[in-house]
């Protein structure tokens, strides 16, 4: 049965089939959160965000919202249904019997929180204390989908306690240095421990019957095992990228464009021993083009490699940030139509074009792209 804009249906099995319905985030009331173990490990040691916290300046919020609104309009003009979250008050503290932090984060990157697998949308555990309640920004939409789609499964992973036992104290030093961080990454020693299952949705890529999950700062091995048990009909594969001193979220490192083709960050290549599944099945892994910028925007957590944080609209069409000219050129060489989207001034609010969206519906069914395992 073909998709209809007049009928809500949740369904998305991969990252590239034709996109019909999507959530685009908002920059409303976004905060730089106070210091906490997971956050401190993520913020680059030379970042202008070190030691700062509080509501972001209103003019930057307005500019980011302008860009996100324009992006939503671009998608609508391409006949994509677009929904938006309802921002909660992110100035409120997060308090549980186990921890307290003085403010929250925001609702620009729904990809971090929501994982759509088939007819299910799963709320991730999250591994930052400031993001414990972030799912509430999306609950009105998920409630609507549940009421309108009788086949929709709304699931939530067990909320973690996020006590100090969840974090390795070695990462609490402000001056670790990239050399030490890279050594730890190669040893798979991350800020998150194995105290309890932890995962962010943005560490998961969907390839039909296969889920590829990054082990790093925001997803631990217990989180990956939880996903394996939760999706028993899927094959769940653990990957890591030892060239990344801040291994958080997979979508600026490993980006599938269509069946058989993946972009890989040349500074964070997939290790040889983890390439077998792709090589056996004829997938090509190509180095992504270099970013157009040498530094991230002001007060931005993310690396310059948001250049490859693209949104695939269908196997022949991809949204690329307007200033990322080298990435756009590469997409053209790979036979993709490029849709330019201005978003750089919103990067600081949670990421790029993939981060600021969450799939609701894509065409296609659950296929096996890796029959040779």
From TrEMBL:
Q: Which UniProt keywords apply?
A: Kinase, Serine/threonine-protein kinase, Transferase
Q: What does the record list as coiled-coil region(s)?
A: none
MF terms (GO), sorted A to Z? glycine amidinotransferase activity; protein serine/threonine kinase activity
Report the InterPro entries cross-referenced here.
AmidinoTrfase
Q: Which residues cross the membrane?
A: none
Q: Region Disordered: what ranges?
A: 34-53
Q: Where is the catalytic site?
A: 200, 249, 355
Task: Tell me what this protein is called.
Answer: Serine/threonine protein kinase
Q: Which organism is it from?
A: Aliiroseovarius halocynthiae
């Amino acid at each position: 049965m073909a998709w209809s804009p007049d009928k809500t249906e949740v369904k998305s099995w991969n990252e590239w089939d034709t996109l019909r319905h999507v959530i685009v985030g908002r920059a409303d009331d976004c905060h730089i959160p106070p210091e906490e173990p997971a956050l401190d490990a993520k913020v680059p040691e030379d970042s202008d965000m070190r030691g700062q916290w509080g509501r972001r300046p209103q003019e930057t919020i307005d500019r980011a919202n302008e860009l996100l609104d324009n992006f939503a309009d671009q998608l609508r003009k391409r006949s994509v249904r677009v929904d938006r979250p309802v921002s909660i008050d992110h100035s409120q503290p997060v308090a549980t019997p186990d921890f307290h932090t003085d403010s929250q984060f925001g609702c620009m990157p729904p990809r971090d929180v929501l994982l759509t697998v088939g007819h299910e949308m799963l709320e991730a555990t999250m591994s930052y204390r400031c993001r414990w309640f972030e799912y509430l920004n999306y609950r009105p939409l998920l409630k609507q989908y549940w009421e309108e789609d009788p086949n929709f499964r709304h699931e939530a992973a067990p909320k973690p306690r996020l006590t100090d036992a969840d974090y390795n104290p070695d990462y609490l030093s402000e001056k670790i240095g990239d050399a030490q961080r890279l050594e730890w990454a190669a040893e798979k020693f991350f800020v998150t421990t194995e105290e309890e299952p932890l995962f962010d949705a943005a560490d998961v890529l969907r390839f039909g019957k296969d889920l590829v999950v990054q082990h790093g700062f925001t997803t631990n091995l217990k989180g990956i095992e939880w996903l394996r048990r939760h999706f028993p009909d899927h094959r769940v594969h653990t990957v890591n990228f030892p060239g990344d001193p801040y291994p958080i979220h997979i979508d600026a490192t490993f980006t599938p464009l269509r069946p058989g083709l993946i972009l890989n960050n040349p500074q964070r290549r997939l290790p040889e021993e983890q390439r077998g599944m792709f090589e056996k099945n004829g997938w090509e892994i190509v180095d992504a083009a270099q970013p157009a910028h040498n530094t991230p925007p002001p007060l931005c957590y993310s690396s310059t490699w948001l250049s490859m944080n693209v949104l695939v609209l269908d196997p022949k069409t991809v949204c690329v940030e307007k200033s990322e000219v080298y990435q756009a050129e590469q997409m053209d060489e790979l036979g993709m139509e490029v849709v330019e989207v201005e978003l750089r001034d919103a990067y600081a609010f949670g990421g790029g074009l993939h981060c600021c969206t969450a799939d609701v519906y894509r065409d296609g069914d659950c296929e096996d792209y890796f029959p040779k395992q």
